[in-house]
Amino acid sequence: LFGTQLGGGTDINRALAYCQSQITRPADTVVVLISDLYEGGIRDEMLKRVAAMKASGVQFVTLLALSDEGAPAYDREHAAALAALGAPAFACTPDLFPEVMAAAIEKRPLPIPDTA
Hints:
Blueprint: H1 12-22, E1 30-35, H2 43-56, E2 59-64, H3 76-84, E3 89-90, H4 97-105
Parallel strand pairs: 1-2, 2-3
Helix pairs in contact: 1-2
């Protein structure tokens, strides 16, 4: 997961539309978006879709891409918009990832690192 290079040309909204169509028990669902948030699709639709999933009870977490140097490399405007919807967007180390996911699944506050 942390060592895989994914390609560009991402249509996040389209991917989330597919995920949303598969959700049958929103209160028991955690969506983990692994992305740099550089949206190739329709930004406003992506945000509306995340808001709708959150409103239905879905836990939503965005794990940001890391550069080769280990620093977050992502669209900060989209990350801020997601955070405003209650969908945290952050980068974390492989060591912290299990703890973050456990917190999301258990609906506890996420122990996310300070990205400031």
